[in-house]
Design a protein that fits this description.
With 176 residues, the chain is mainly α. The protein has one domain: Ferritin, core subunit, four-helix bundle (Ferritin, Up-down Bundle).
């Protein structure tokens, strides 16, 4: 049985994941509007992934007999000065989400709530991957640049990440 504090904090995380999905979907739209189709596709996929993170938390709460509560949220930003600025905001957002996951892990360890601690380990690993991914995208943006054809190459590179993720998802063997 989850403590009321843990239920509240997991519900907060549900809503942060939902906001993340909306943020990336909005950013995808910004990219599509600027003919950055590779980035748009990548961020659209990432929005779906964040929604999956939210649903995973909802399922966990339901399995423990707790009520998942979806709250209202502020609209995400919809305009950016540059692709670099947008990915810097994404990286900062992922670092924020990591800090919130770490807070949940600390709470689960302190209470102690070992089932939730075990459940959260997937999120710990996922956030490590997310930060690494967005840091590497920023590194490539800084390396290649966004002037002239650089923007084309960055968009193509990021679009390749979306294509690779789609290919990997469709080639996984069926699970029992």
């Amino acid at each position: 049985m989850l403590s009321p504090n843990m239920i509240n904090r997991l519900n907060e995380q549900i809503n942060l994941e939902m906001f993340s999905s909306h943020l990336y979907l909005q950013m995808s739209s910004w990219c599509a509007y600027r003919a950055l189709d590779g980035c748009a596709s990548f961020l659209n996929q990432h929005a779906d992934e964040e929604m999956m993170h939210m649903r995973r938390l909802i399922t966990y709460l339901q399995e423990t007999g707790a009520l998942a509560i979806l709250g209202s949220m502020e609209a995400p930003a919809h305009d950016f000065q540059s692709l670099t600025e947008m990915f810097e905001k994404i990286y900062a957002h992922e670092q924020f989400i990591t800090s919130k996951i770490n807070d949940l892990v600390h709470l689960a360890n302190t209470e102690p709530d070992y089932p939730t601690l075990q459940f959260l380990q997937w999120y710990v690993a996922e956030q490590h991957q997310e930060e690494f991914l967005f840091k590497s995208i920023l590194d490539k943006i800084h390396l290649i640049g966004t002037e002239g054809q650089g923007l084309f190459f960055i968009d193509r590179e990021i679009g390749g990440l979306a294509a690779a993720a789609t290919s990997a998802a469709t080639s996984e063997p069926a699970r029992a």
